[in-house]
Amino acid sequence: MELIADVLLAAGALGAGLYCLVLGRRLNRFNDLEKGVGGAVAVLSAQVDDLTKTLAAAQSTAATSANTLTDLTTRAEDMSRKLELQMASLHDLPEPAHVSNGATVGQSAGEPMFVRHRNTETHQ
User: Fold this and answer.
1) Element holding 82 (H helix, E strand)
2) How many helices and strands in the chain, by DSSP H and E?
3) pTM above 0.70, yes or no
4) Which helix (H) or strand (E) holds 30?
5) CA 11 – CA 115 distance, rounded (Å)
6) 99 phi, psi to nearest 5 deg
7) Is residue 109 within 8 Å of residue 102, measured between CB atoms?
8) What is the C-alpha separation between 36 and 121, in angstroms, rounded?
9) Three-state DSSP class for 105?
10) E strands along the chain, which residues?
11) For every one of its 124 residues, what pLDDT tens digit does the chain have, with 9 covering 90 and above?
12) Residue 33: which of 15, 51, 45, 19 has the closest Cα?
């Protein structure tokens, strides 16, 4: 009976050894960096690092663009206020006399718009 127990114990040990050998080979293939899940994890880790760097650069660019846009909007609002003020000041000017052919009423088209009058007493 001891012989049968020893044979069964040896067979069990050989079976467990064979099972461990097969399991070890499968685990090596599973963790292989080129073909297995280990390779996929390594590739995904590298992609995550690249995406993190890209995201940081995009956030920096977006912040810079937002600041620039804020400055430009502020300048545009200031210019709009100035233009509104200038337009309002134009409404305060008196209306010009009737204009025809570039000359106002009382001025013929042949007369110059500005005339220089000399003092006749000094040029005699």
Assistant:
1) helix 37-91
2) 2, 2
3) no
4) helix 2-30
5) 129
6) -105, 130
7) yes
8) 112
9) coil
10) 99-100, 103-104
11) 889 999 999 999 999 999 999 999 888 877 776 777 777 888 899 999 999 999 999 999 999 999 999 999 999 999 999 999 988 888 777 776 655 555 555 556 666 666 666 766 655 4
12) 45
Locate 95 and state its tokens: 């209306």
Backbone angles phi, psi at 117, to 5 degrees: -100, 125
Calculate the CA 6 to chain-centre distance.
Answer: 75
Residue 25 CA: distances (Å) to CA of 18, 19, 41, 69, 95: 11, 10, 19, 60, 99
Give 33's contacts (C-beta < 8 A, 6+ positions apart).
39, 42
